[in-house]
Amino acid sequence: NGVDIGGSTSSVGFETTDIGASHGGRGEANAKPPYGSFLQPTDLGSKANCRGGGAVRIVCDALTLADAASRIKANGCTQKQWGSGSGGSIWLTTRTLAGEGSVQANGGDYQGLYGQVGGGGRAAVYVSEDVSGWSGTVEVRSGTRGELLGGVGTMLLAFPDDGDGAHLSVVNAHTATETLET
Question: Considering its fold, how many domains does the chain have in total?
Answer without folding.
Answer: 1
